[in-house]
Amino acid sequence: MIPYPSPEQRELELVELVARASATIPGTELIEYGRSVEQRPLHVVRVPSPASTASSVAPRVLVCANTHGPEFIGNRVCVGMLAKLIDDPPPPLRQLHERAELWLAPCLNPDGYARTHARDGAGTLAQLRHNHRGVDLNRNWPLPTGARRLPLPGAGSPTPGDATYRGPSPLSEPETAALDQLLTTQKFHASANLHSFMGTMFPPRVRTRAAAMAYARLCAALRQAQPHTRYLRIASRVFDTFTGEQEDHQHHAHGCWSICVECFSVRASLAQSFGRRVPLFWRFNPRDPQPWVDNDVPGVAAFLLATLDLPPAHP
Ligand SMILES: [Zn+2]
């Protein structure tokens, strides 16, 4: 699965990048915020902002990736935020760091990553996507107060073995429980959650037209900063039905401007696998990740930067 790193290479790369970053950005640190079911560390990198002073901390923004096992490109984009910050950041990333503390959690599901890598990316979605207990971590979040679950495919299944099995109860899994604790303690102003492979942006389901319009503007900022492939916004939805996805919980329970970004594109995915039997992995990830890292790092940074001009997203 070259050019994607093995689990061990991925961890080593992160340690080395943090060491390089801390030489120019003092205080940059690797934090273990929890452990997966199989006891792999859950890592987040904190990059302090020059805007923080002794008496006040700059707003914090979070980029998450790889909550689904096979979605390695999201991991590359998230790690790419740190790599580009060290060497010649694109303007939106430089401006973002000048005003906000960056938190990067590049692999929310290290057990799913390891399983995908061990199988050379071959298998069904239900075999690769989950954590070690067969739970879809992006359906394991609590629903907002007073909300109901949408009775449609993709909304989170109560049946073990299904691709979107939501688990026995919200936050039943150590990966989601640890991240929710981090969300509670750090009070992030904004967050981007990276998936693949549709080339789309999914804002949270919101309850007011004003919030939907704010997300439309934030998505436009993301798109406009993408140099070669501009992602499609799937309309901000004003709904009272929910699916247990991370960005809905972040917006409604933590007051955090949040978005799900599906990196890569349907067209490019089809072009590299059309008419051939390829492992599932190559539907989700580009053969060459670098152009997509170059495309998505400025986009994600521009989204987060645009949120800094807004007050907190109220629950
Ligand atoms: Zn995903």
UniProtKB/TrEMBL annotation:
Gene3D superfamilies: Zn peptidases. Keywords: Carboxypeptidase, Hydrolase, Metal-binding, Metalloprotease, Protease, Zinc. GO terms for molecular function: metallocarboxypeptidase activity; zinc ion binding. Residues 137-174 are annotated as: Disordered. Its cofactor is Zn(2+). GO terms for biological process: proteolysis. Pfam families: Peptidase_M14 (PF00246). Residues 2-315 form the Peptidase M14 domain. SUPFAM superfamilies: Zn-dependent exopeptidases. GO terms for cellular component: extracellular space. Belongs to the peptidase M14 family. This is Carboxypeptidase T.
